[in-house]
Amino acid sequence: MVEWDRAKRITILFGGLNKERLVSVASAQALHRALPDAELWFWDADDQVYPTQPSALLGHGRPFEEAFQPGSASLGRLTQALDQAKAENRVLLLGLHGGTAENGELQAMCELRGIAFTGSGSASSDLAFDKVAGKRLAALAGGAVAGGIPLDHL
Predict the structure, then answer these.
(1) Measured between alpha carbons, how far is residue 7 from residues 4, 36, 82, 137, 151 in Å?
(2) Cβ neighbourhood burial of 37 (10 Å; 0-12, 13-18, 19+)
(3) pLDDT in tens, 65-124
(4) Cα gap 153→125, rounded to integer Å
(5) pLDDT band at 1; cut points 50, 70, 90
(6) Looking at the 3D structure of the chain, how many domains does it have?
(7) CA 99 to the chain's CA centroid
(8) CATH number of the domain to which 57 belongs
(9) Residue 46 in contact with residue 74, Cβ under 8 Å?
(10) How many whole angstroms separate alpha carbon 48 and alpha carbon 81?
(11) Any domain includes 133
């Protein structure tokens, strides 16, 4: 059994560079209700990360329709925030969707810094994000895979 390091600070990282950040805000609301002591960092489309008050996040009533505005000073670009997360011994609970947040790039940035985070690692995230390659690997492993037609030419 793994011993939990109580000195680690849980931080919900949500938002992201793509339009799925709207969904991410709703995810972060649910995550924060489950873990009310977790700190909140919002990664905005401008690649800045903002510490966020729970009242601002939970008070945002239309996360799927309206952009979230954190209302605080930036910690800096994502790379600076990740450096801070490492220095402060944070565990990042990833409440992110799509693009850089799911394709292994963010996971690789965390792995290179030695930051603990939730979810799959960079290699498996990259593979899962490539649906054609993921299906091919599942089939090689003997999994049942639905047929499909790659649309790379579009």
Answers:
(1) 9, 17, 18, 39, 47
(2) exposed
(3) 999 999 899 999 999 999 999 999 999 999 999 888 889 999 999 999 999 999 999 988
(4) 24
(5) very low
(6) 1
(7) 10
(8) 3.40.50.20
(9) no
(10) 8
(11) yes
Q: Which amino acid is at 47?
A: D
Domain that holds residue 102: 9-140
Q: Tell me whether strands 116-117 and 90-96 are parallel, antiparallel or unpaired.
A: parallel
The verdict on residue 116 lying in a domain is yes
- Whether 68 maps to a domain, the answer reads yes
143's CB contacts (< 8 A; 6+ apart) are none
Closest CA to 68 of 6, 12, 3, 21: 21
Predicted confidence (pLDDT) per residue in 64-80, tens digit: 999 999 989 999 999 99
Looking at the chain, how many residues does it have? 154
Q: Which residues contact 136 (CB under 8 A, 6 or more apart)?
A: none
Q: What are phi and psi of 95, to 5 degrees?
A: -105, 50
Which 8-state DSSP code applies to residue 76? E
Would you say residue 145 lies in a domain?
no
Nearest CA to 78 out of 45, 116, 117, 48 is that of 48
Q: HSE (CB half, 13 Å, CA atoms) of 62?
A: 3
CA distance 110 to 78: 11
* Chain-centre distance for alpha carbon 131: 19
